[in-house]
Amino acid sequence: MSKISTSDVVKRANAGESFAGENLANIDLSGAQLSGIDFSRANLNGARLKNSNLVNANLNEADLSGADLSGAALQGAYLIGANLANTNIEGTTLQGAFLGGSILAGTNFRNADLRGATIGCPRWVVPDQFGKLTSFENANLEETIFGETKPQGVVFLGAKFTGAYLYEVDFSEAVHKRSDLKDAIIKKGRN
């Protein structure tokens, strides 16, 4: 099977075609207009999607490990069960995105805008002693929903949690300042 070119992806995306389950590893789609695209279950390992428009995209169960999504627009995108290990999401807009059950290991969310996003039950993979930590440093997490999780190997320094809903979140193994969480809504289970 021949490799799909960048121009083919853009052309097919403009025609509303789906890329569900396709192999697009290492493709360069930087700056591409891909709003509403279906990349569910696609292999986007190592893909370059820097500054791309992925508003309302379906990236459920996609393999985005090692991808560069820095500066991309992902408002309302679905990333449920996506593999985001070692993915660069720095400065990305993820307002209202859904990241439930995603694999987060060494993921760079620095300065990302996650206002109103849902990050329920993520799978934090603790790096080995030389691995990268997952970072939400200086990220905007206002009104974000975190649920039923224990962030391990995660840095939240400078993150803005105003109005964030933290349901059964155990920050005991995360790097943060107590003051970062002062404006969050913290809900413990019935235990």
What's the helix and strand layout?
Layout: H1 6-14, E1 103-104, E2 118-120, E3 123-124, E4 134-135, E5 145-149, E6 154-155, E7 165-169, E8 185-187
Parallel strand pairs: 1-3, 2-5, 4-6, 5-7, 7-8
Summarize the structure in words.
The protein is mainly beta and 191 residues long. The protein has one domain (1-191): E3 ubiquitin-protein ligase SopA (Pectate Lyase C-like). The chain has 1 helix and 8 strands, in the order αββββββββ. It has one helix at 6-14; strands spanning 103-104, 118-120, 123-124, 134-135, 145-149, 154-155, 165-169, 185-187. The strands form 3 sheets. A 4-stranded parallel sheet has the order 2-5-7-8, with no helix packed on it. The chain starts with 5 loop residues before the first helix and ends with a strand.
CATH superfamily annotation? E3 ubiquitin-protein ligase SopA
Largest sheet: 4 strands, parallel
CATH fold naming: Pectate Lyase C-like
CATH architecture: 3 Solenoid
**Quaternary structure state of the chains depicted:** single chain
Order of helices and strands: HEEEEEEEE
CATH class categorisation: Mainly Beta
Query: Helical content, roughly?
Result: under 10%
Figure out the total of helices.
1
Mean of all residue-level pLDDT scores: 93
Using the CA coordinates, give the radius of gyration: 16 Å
Supply the number of structural domains. 1
The shape, in one word, is: elongated
